[in-house]
Design brief:
By secondary structure, the chain is mainly α. Among the domains are: about 60 residues, no CATH class; about 280 residues, no CATH class. The chain is built from 32 helices and four strands. A two-stranded antiparallel sheet has the order 1-2. It has a two-stranded antiparallel sheet with strand order 3-4. α13 packs antiparallel against α29. About 50% of the residues are buried. It comes from Aspergillus clavatus (strain ATCC 1007 / CBS 513.65 / DSM 816 / NCTC 3887 / NRRL 1 / QM 1276 / 107). It is a multi-pass membrane protein. Belongs to the oligopeptide OPT transporter family. Keywords: Membrane, Peptide transport, Protein transport, Transmembrane, Transmembrane helix, Transport. It is found in: Membrane.
Amino acid sequence: MARFQTRADGNDVEECPDDLALRDDGAPKKPVTAEEAMEIAIGESSTVEYTVESDNSPYLEVRANVPNTDDPTLPINTFRMWFLGVVFTLLGTGVNQFFSMRYPSVTITSLVAQLVSYPVGSFFAKALPIMKVRLFGRWDLVINPDHHFNVKEHAVITIMSNLSFNQSWASTIIQAQRVYLKMPTRVGYQILLALSMQMFGLGLAGLSYRYIIEPPQMIWPSTLANAALFQTLHSGANPIADGWRISRYRFFLYVLIGSFCWYWLPGYIFTGLSTFAFVCWAAPNNKVLNNLFGMTTGLGYLPTTFDWSQIAYNTSPLVMPFWAQANVFAGWLCVYAVVAPILYYTNTWFTAYLPLTGSDAYDKTGSFYNSSRILDESGTIDETKYREYSPIFLPVTFALSYGMGFAVLSCLISHVLLYQYIQRPKQEGHPCEAAVSLSRCSMVVVRDSDSYCGGDSNLDSICLAYRTTILGSIYNACSGGCLCDSRRHRLRSGQPQQQCLDCVRRDYIGIRAKGETTCSSDLQGVLVLPFFSKRLLTALQFYAYTGLSQAMYYGADMKLVACILGTLTQNGVLIWMLGNVKDMCSSDQPDNFTCPQGRVNYNSAVFWGARLYSIGQRYSGLLHMFWIGALLPVITYFIRKRFPKSRFLDAVHWPIFFAGTGNLPPATGINYTTAFAVSLIFNKIIKGRRPHWWAKYNYVLSAALDSGVAVAAILIFFALVFPGVSLNWWGNTVNSGTVDAKGVPWKELSANETFGESNWS
């Protein structure tokens, strides 16, 4: 982290450490003022060359939020770092596991831990004595190295939170097996299942490091909000940005307080502001209007909401580049806003008898699919019971999401081959040119440790998985996970959206499991490992952006501690809730603990891809998305060769087009239309007209809005919702009386009437 001192003229000047004070040619570096640093960040400095020797990233987003200097003398492996890291891991993981079983849920992100840990860490630095303690006669434990809580300690605490805070897929598997499939699960099985998934994710992250983190174009925009907050809390620089003199930290506090106060309106006092579908309020029984403009089971055409959690449901639009957000919006517009209603109102796949949007499966009477009616005591499908009951029907948006997933898989392969290998320029010259954007040669020297430790972690995880599922199926799931992992993260490094490769995962496992629902749910957990390796790769990008040593990363085993503690905490909370909360996971649970992700996992376990998408089945037409997805990047590639100066063609990115809507359902159009509008305003208009302001405040604004909403939502839940304090008035009940909220289909069935095929298999 760069140090700054104030000159006589009032400008903040960067101090370079002695070992960084000279250029490669031996000439001393000229001091850089804060205003000059801002010019460098937005690319207006005529004296800066973006070369390896200059240590400047060629990307504006990185330059604006990540310092290009490092102080290797800053202590990292300290008592205060370990203590705070463990405490935040336990608290955040427990709270998030508690909330994950409720809908709507509240998630504590690493931004909250990053925010709260700073004043606590600063207090520890001031209060603890400066001393070392000798442990077992061999190791020195640094209680407090100095009275300054530095950015590297802060980064490690944040990374431990990032690794552990997200819900483990293993917990949703346990919910599906214990609650819906009525299968007993032992504590040892639950822990081994979770640990095997976590460790395999660690291994994938290590093996992917040199391909996903080191190339300078792998920016990972979602990490830049954290990087901006680090700069806000630890940097003393305060350049003037388009007339704005307020510091980043003060700006962060003001927005945080405002976001916290405002969220009480859409979050509790007037919840209608969250889903502001005033068209549906005016005509609550009009099916067409509710289908198109509704925000529960409708498409959500209108970009009207006053709830930041709705806008940032997929990811904060402030941290996503506008070109990526535009591709996501185009995917939603073409497929879900246009194709979905056409299929729905023409009753394709019998979808008119179901809600337009939803993530549930239905039977031939339009009721939720009851898989217990077709399973035997071992959890395997009974063909006779299946034919006597009903085939599975999906809402049109749910079915299309699988088609989008098929297109993503083939599209990614074509895109990577064309743009990452055929068109990629040769890396020549300086040995660090293929490294991360900050060009740290040390990362090239130690990067092999990632691969070795990653491979070892993979072997350990396979040994654990052997104790929990079928050995022959572990190979299938792990190989599928590795295939999805490399493709998924090359996409995520360019834009922080969720992908719908999990659709392919579900069908792949459904075909391999052949009706074994227990095996299916377990293997889905193994194949979902790219989600966890994404969190590990995000942590690795944190290390790149904060100059942390990879040797420290593996030597201290911080990642293992965070994963193990997180696993134990999640299992403890899960076991307690399943045993102590009344009517847990039922659809009418009074406190809304309906286990939404467990329900999705349960439904996925009975989808059996061969019964839905194989040739001759109802949704087999969606298999055409494989060749469509593979062909579109090829067509665009050759058109760009013909028109190399076309800015429009440069912005077309087919993998993001298909993958960006991976959260739909349960997301609706409101989450995409509002995100596009916000991205257009901030990342296109303001970035173009007020680049200084954007470079200084944009990512700080995102971090403050997210943190304010998270803190307010937690307080509202524990202080009001959980104790049962309700606020019943028109503003909180106006949505419940609409066709959209009730999920009324376009075609309603009379009593004892059914729809669909007369014969199925």
